[in-house]
Please model this.
Amino acid sequence: MVEEDSVRVVRCGGSELNFRRAVFSADSKYIFCVSGDFVKVHSTATEECVHILQGHRNLVTGIQLNPNNHLQLYSCSFDGTIKLWDYIDGILIKTFIVGHKLHALFTLAYVFQLVSVKLPKSSSQEIEAKELSFVLDYINQSPKCIAFGNEVKFALVFYFVYKISLQFTLSSSKNKKHAKNNFTCVACHPKEDCIATGHKDGKIRLWRNFDDDKKYTYTCLHWHHDLVMDLAFSVTGTSLLSGGRESVLVEWRDATEKNKEFLPRLGATIEHISVSPAGDLFCTSHSDNKIIIIHRNLEASAVIQGLVKDSNIFTGLMIDPRTKALVLNGKPGHLQFYSLQHDKQLYNLDIIQQEYINDYGLIQIELTKAAFGCYGNWLATVEQRQEKETELELQMKLWMYNKKTQGFVLNTKVNMPHEDHITALCFCNAEKLENPTLVTASKDGHFKVWILTDDSDIYKKAVGWTCDFVGSYHKYQATNCCFSEDGSLLAVGFEEIVTIWDSETWELKCTFCQRAGNIRHLCFGRLTCSKYLLGATENGILCCWNLLSCALEWSAKLNVRVMEPDPHSENIAAISQSSVGSDLFVFKPSEPRPLYIQKNISREEVQWGVFVPRDVPESFTSEAYQWLNRSQFYFLTKSQVTIPLQKAEESLPTTPFYFILGKHREQQDEKINEALESELVQLPLTENIPAISELLHTPAHVLPSAAFLCSKFVNSLLLSKETKSCEEIPEDVDMEEEKESDDSDVENDFTEKTQDTNDTDLGEDIIHQLSKSEEKELRKFRKVDYSWITVL
Model:
């Protein structure tokens, strides 16, 4: 059972992994990256997320290793705090409250200072010398680096840190127009007095002699045709790494123009470059929200891919019926399949199948629509390109799922399925549908019905899609379309008018018109509410029509931006936009009063939403939260994916221990609930035993020896005589009788003897008559959990 106050909106993933530079651990086994208000710890060998460091209340803006402890990590955030983490165990060590927004973090080793100490005169054995006066900072701790002159008139100190503030300027060339010398990035040489800077003109400049603002010099390296996004020196300083919009990592060896190596076709603009402290690994962060781990020989070894979010998500949010993955626009021309449970991308499906050219002036082909049909067996996509108003290139593709390759294969390609932009497409997903059916709606004033037909020839058997019917209504633009649950009716929105069509004969049955603006969203009710049709208009009116009476059932003034039906219930979720934020309303079409309202679920504008079926149904008892029993509602904002549900109970992390103890814990919770209902006494649960809690929640490197913990663990499993319940005696009796009878007899005897023993209360008398050998034998049986018998 889940209590009412345990439901809240939480962020579940989709944040930017490329917001800041990734950081390697000292041994190159782990790589750290910011992810919204989290810090993720990934294995460089397996790409898997080992830990998620949670604790910040706002965007994490910087991460750095602790220079004095390579097993610790610092992070800073817009919440005004700096946190110190033990990333091996994934625990928070300390929080430093700064109180101001922190935009970046830099860590250095301890700086040594030269101070004078006044020694007080006293007869005591121990004297505190508190009077300290500052002399000099940024000195070397070695006494060889400090010397005092005669009568302490001067001191000679070797400086190892420059404390010089200089300004270098680059003037635009007079012979070249629009020269772009603006600085874009900077990197310092780890060994020499050299600074590398990147510029908008694609050049890299190496500055030397910068301790003198009149004698400084620079040399140029030039390969990038566009601005240089980031620079990084290798650990030894023998190589300089650069990256930009060409999606190519360039290694400049010995800082010379001729000696350079390339790692091309990395897929997207390089935004950050990081080098491991050991020098054996590099990594690049890209604009498509991925991190590529690269070996020293410039070979890519691993890819950590996050959710790719384009500026425009034309396809909306869909759920793949087969993998339960979130499907939406990915990198240009692709559909991405994203795991919501693991917050990582599963794979990309190349729809356009053309090489992408990164040029801001080039009109690209855009993937605008997509829909799944027939329980994931078919996928329909629409792509378009329009260079001028009269030059529209439109193409629709039908993809069939191939069980052998476990992927989608192109089946049918239709050039110019409509004469204008396609506004909607939907499959008929009725259970008893004989022939798959697809409907497309367009601004050309028509909707078209596409059916699957036999396309076999003498060489092979095949199927293909063809147009079966074309419909229109008074030359209005078709804006929406959807099928009823049983597939018998088709609703098509023509601007302000909703038309209902018979899917057998394609005859127009009735029309609905409220003159409240163009229809923005359209959907049928489900299950017991299948007789209702819902429509949301651009003027902020939500209408519900009764299909049996062909009349308006109710209407409400609500500026609906997102409206999604739950495929497993009658519930419908609607998100409205206000000046404060986005509000969530959950209701059934049969009743205008909402089941659940949550104001300001997001300060950002919600772009899309979708219901995702649960693998295991929940058991919310409150009527206000029962809509979450079988599905979860995910919604997408500009910065992240969130869901309005999170249990308040503490959960074990998904580790190998979770699969051992987590499942056992769930089974124990079920047994507790059943035992409470039948008023039976249960044996103590493992989570209440201090030894197990100590084993699971204490970092491994500070645990006592295994010999010490073993005895404590074994003793904690034994029950004291004072707390023995009367159920222990029937268990002992049953174990003796088990040798003489089968399992079914044992189950019957256990129930009867439990009741008899509870009535007569003979437990204590029998316990006092046990001998030492019998008590020792009994302790062996107590180590085994027999509580499963109570559920039979």
The chain has seven helices and 52 strands. The CA atoms of residues 657 and 696 lie 9 Å apart.
